[in-house]
């Protein structure tokens, strides 16, 4: 259980520093801030062998052994050669969980490798759970645990800018083998408005790995979607068994890098990962109900869809748009990705024609799937058509491509779409092209209503495909287990 | 020649209105603004059959025939049934160029179809060049011609937001069969900071089509890259012949929608386009040196790269990064897209090792391609390594994945990269992940230096592939023609 990492009642920063910019200072600074703001509610201790003067107002000790209680979590940032001893002290003190941020172990070879072996030996002797070494650690937005040491702000041409922002709290968990990529992902999530439940980077993973992480996240009530960036998966069989079980309840999305021979070679220099045969990974993921994505953009597009919308119960989808061109592109992408354009029932078509006769849908609109309401569309045309196709039993999900540029579309549309789609249990994804203020705000309005909104038709279709794949996989996993 | 559309010395808006929000008002308003700001320097006339009172300060006439000179361009926005007569008047007046914005022709069938036939007959009789009908027309940022009628601002939850922005002036031309998609593209270009040279949407294209557009853009000194969104290409043979010739000088990038059977069916409802066999299109594009892209994001990512960087002379590229994970992903994408990771020469490797020995490159860096400078990288490590690999004859282009999050990377890097890469004639594309202020500004710094910068590794690799493809195609077209 990793509870002690994410919800500790007390934390000791071992190797705390008085010098701004140093890792041992930056980590403590973030934790102090989180305690000041009330997010982190536990005790905080600093350990610095040279002085017991308070750092940042935090009680400081020369050794872990002098702390008046055994902290639930130790964050170790001492130089690599001192790390085994620091962990030994933690063990003696009765500390059960340690994040070892320090680098200079197996990843540098030679002396580093033997240090890592010593560290592992200490860990085993005391039964301490260890995340790392050589990692950026963990973030739990709801409890204020945050071990990221990268500068939150940086200078750029004389001005100071936010450089490593944290996403807002939410329901998406991210587990990553690469620390730098993990930090970059947090920056991306922040901008995309995707909320984070838990973040974990485990670096050289001498102990805690993907399997432990998924086990923890399975039971974490805040996590609805589990994202994994991996270059290798070591306990493959166990991982797949567990994934199969977890995917019945929560979607697992994997970005597996090192999928080509060039990538695999690069991965082996990066994390000494044995990437393994990609064909085997692919088949295994599919069998375990894991949704595989191919790049970073898709990882988060899919995460957003799975966090906001129910999975689809079948592969037939409808496209509803006010822009013929984006409708054609989405139809192309739908077929290219192996989804199907639903054929509307005769009743649906007849009722759509009724709406056209009563001028709710413009006379020049095209009523077969994709429905092109044209630039003469109004909010009413969208809502009228959407309600009818949601009622059609052949439709399992709807992709709404709503270009805001047309005169008859207003900012009421997102709310009205959310209202009319309630109760059908069919997923909706939205799209509006553009970077104008209006486009940005319009997409935000959709997301405020729980409808993921994308800036390009193809991305909306990919998001819908994930909802379809997960829906079908989940159904089959549940059937097999019952 | 389409010069009269893009550089007219005088424009008449036929069907001008006094009512804000009406198409005949909005178009006149934009032109008046552009004349006021000094971008449009020609004369402006309004035609309104009901009153010759000035509209927006523009001299207004009851008929085109009463205007004191034959305007070089007429923009016709009268209701469809009155359009043939309006064009007839233009012909009598000696007007040679007309944009017919009005809809209600072939796209609605029936009576509309016969109106379109009449319009075409008038056009032929007088030899008037016509863009449209049923289109959004043209934009020429350098001369202030702009016939877009969509509301520039729209209300959203009580606030007024920019809704249909115009991109800054630049070197990318966009030709589009779909008006709504075109407007959405302008919105996207605005946000991406991609500069526009000319915009043209030709709707039902009774006269001006892709061929005319490419002929004009070939000789337009402002246009460096030609983008085309097409659902069908009617004069296929002529188009390909011309493209083959133009592509020797300027890259042509095509997003061909209706590539699947679902998309083709949607296209036929949208613009009555016969999409044709996609395999044939694909082969023909390749032979003509046309760069084909598969979605909107790629269209503009590629446009940016071609506008900013020279094409690559070969398919071997290098990847240089401070983030191992993004390096692995980029290596994957490189191989998946058919590019090759260059093998460095023994001299290059030896000199890289020298830099490592002198601590310019961190000791834990990996020096084979992709070069992973790791999170200990500094600006100096990037510059030192980049200079060496640019000198390597096996390297034809460099993908720089510079995660700004690492402490040693500063805002000086983009400028230094631009400086060190000057004179090699080898393309550079950059990438930094994130939406933090710093990430956004950091990418802008690269682009200010003429280096396109992307937010994801895969997009940077796709951009480089376009530079490679265009370089190879251009070379082969030149060889065949000499």
Task: Kindly describe this structure.
- The structure is a homodimer of 482-residue chains.
- Chain A is an alpha/beta fold and 482 residues long.
- Chain A folds into 3 domains: 1-136, Rossmann fold (3-Layer(aba) Sandwich), CATH 3.40.50.720; 150-308, Succinyl-CoA synthetase domains (Rossmann fold, 3-Layer(aba) Sandwich), CATH 3.40.50.261; 310-479, Rossmann fold, CATH 3.40.50.261.
- The first copy, chain A, has 16 helices and 21 strands.
- In chain A, the strands form 4 sheets. The first copy, chain A, has a 7-stranded mixed β-sheet with strand order 8-7-12-11-13-14-15, sandwiched between helices. A 6-stranded parallel β-sheet of chain A has the order 3-2-1-4-5-6, with helices on both faces. In chain A, strands 16, 17, 18, 19, 20 and 21 form a 6-stranded parallel β-sheet that branches.
- In chain A, α10 crosses α16 (457-481), α11 packs parallel to α16 and α12 packs antiparallel against α13.
- The radius of gyration of chain A is 25 Å and the shape is elongated.
- Chains A and B meet through β9, α5, α8, α11 and α15 of A and β9, α5, α8, α11 and α15 of B.
Total number of β-strand segments of chain A? 21
CATH architectural grouping of the largest domain in chain A? 3-Layer(aba) Sandwich
What is the CA-based Rg of chain A, rounded?
25 Å
Unreliable parts of chain A: none
Proportion of helical residues of chain A = 40-55%
Largest interface: A-B, 92 and 92 residues
């Amino acid at each position: 259980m990793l509870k002690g990492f994410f919800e500790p009642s007390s934390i000791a920063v071992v190797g705390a520093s008085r010098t701004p910019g140093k890792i041992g200072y930056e980590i403590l600074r973030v934790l102090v801030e989180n305690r000041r703001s009330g997010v982190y509610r536990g005790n905080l201790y600093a350990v610095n062998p040279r002085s017991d003067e308070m750092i940042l107002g935090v009680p400081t000790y020369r050794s872990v052994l002098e702390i008046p209680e055994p902290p639930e979590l130790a964050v170790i940032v001492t130089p690599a050669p001192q790390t085994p001893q620091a962990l030994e002290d933690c063990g003696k003190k009765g500390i059960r969980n340690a994040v070892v941020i320090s680098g200079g172990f197996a990843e540098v070879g030679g002396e580093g490798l033997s240090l890592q072996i010593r560290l592992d030996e200490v860990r085993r002797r005391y039964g301490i759970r260890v995340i790392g070494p050589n990692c950026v650690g963990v973030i739990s937005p709801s409890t204020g645990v945050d071990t990221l040491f990268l500068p939150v702000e940086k200078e750029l041409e004389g001005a100071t800018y936010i450089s490593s922002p944290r996403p807002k709290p939410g329901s998406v968990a991210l587990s990553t083998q690469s620390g730098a990529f993990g930090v970059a992902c947090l920056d991306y999530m922040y901008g995309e408005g995707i909320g984070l439940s838990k973040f974990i980077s485990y670096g050289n993973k001498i102990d805690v790995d993907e399997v432990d992480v998924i086990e923890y996240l399975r039971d974490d009530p805040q996590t609805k979607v589990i994202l994994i960036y991996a270059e290798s998966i070591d306990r493959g069989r166990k991982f797949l068994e567990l994934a199969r079980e977890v995917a019945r309840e929560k979607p697992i999305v994997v970005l597996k890098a090192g999928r080509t021979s060039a990538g695999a070679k690069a991965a082996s220099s990066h994390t000494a990962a044995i990437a393994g045969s990609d064909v085997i990974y692919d088949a295994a993921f599919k069998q375990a109900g894991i949704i595989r994505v191919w790049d970073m953009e898709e990882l988060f597009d899919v995460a957003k869809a799975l966090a906001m919308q129910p999975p689809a119960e079948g592969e037939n989808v409808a496209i509803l748009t006010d822009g013929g061109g984006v409708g054609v592109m989405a139809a192309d992408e739908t077929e290219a990705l192996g989804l199907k354009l639903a054929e509307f029932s005769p009743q649906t078509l007849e009722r759509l024609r009724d709406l056209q006769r009563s001028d709710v849908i413009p006379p020049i609109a095209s009523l077969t799937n994709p429905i092109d309401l044209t630039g003469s569309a109004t909010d009413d045309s969208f809502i009228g058509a959407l309600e009818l196709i949601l009622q059609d039993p052949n439709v399992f999900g709807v992709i709404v491509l709503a270009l805001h540029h047309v005169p008859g579309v207003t900012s009421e549309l997102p709310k009205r779409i959310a209202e009319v789609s309630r109760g059908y249990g069919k997923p909706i994804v939205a799209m509006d092209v553009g970077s104008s203020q209006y486009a940005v705000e319009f997409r935000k309005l959709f997301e405020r209503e729980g409808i993921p909104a994308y800036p390009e038709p193809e991305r909306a279709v990919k998001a819908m495909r994930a909802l379809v794949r997960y829906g079908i996989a989940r159904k089959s996993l549940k059937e097999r287990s019952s």
